[in-house]
Amino acid sequence: FDPRHYLGTHCFGFPKTGPHRLRFLLESVKDLRETLKRKGSTLVVRKGKPEDVVRDLITQLGSVSAVAFHEEVREILKW
Questions:
Q1: Residue 71: its pLDDT value, please?
Q2: How far from the centroid of its chain's Cα atoms is residue 15's Cα?
Q3: Which residues of the chain carry a pLDDT beneath 50?
Q4: Looking at residue 75, what DSSP letter applies?
Q5: Which domains, and CATH codes, for the chain?
Q6: Which of 40, 53, 54, 72 is an S-S bond match for 46, by CB 3.0 to 4.6 Å?
């Protein structure tokens, strides 16, 4: 969980993630973790900036050969 997703937006100060979206996200992560557990796997959940968290996980695991990620698309509205 990237703390920056729970701050106000840079344009209008509204929260990026409101309470309903946050609850949906938490329930989805919980369901994914339970599904993976039933299949004999697990889900690692961390809080922090992804660039820091991923680096720390790679260091902790030691033998990582690949990392896949996606970047949030940010549109700049011009009036």
A1: 76
A2: 16
A3: none
A4: P
A5: 3-61 (3.40.50.620)
A6: 53
Is residue 42 within 8 Å of 33, Cβ to Cβ? yes
Tokens matching residue 40:
């004999």
Q: Which two tokens stand for residue 53?
A: 């968290």
Per-residue H/E/C for 7-59: CECCCCCCECCCHHHHHHHHHHHHHHHHHHHHCCCCCCCCCCCHHHHHHHHHH
Q: What single-letter DSSP state applies at residue 77?
A: P
Q: What span, in angstroms and rounded, lies between the C-alpha atoms of 31 and 26?
A: 9
> Cα–Cα distances in Å, from 15 out to 48, 51, 52, 54?
18, 22, 23, 25
Q: Which of 33, 28, 34 is nearest to 44 (CA)?
A: 33
**Which tokens is 5 given?**
């997703």
Tell me the Cα Rg of the chain: 16
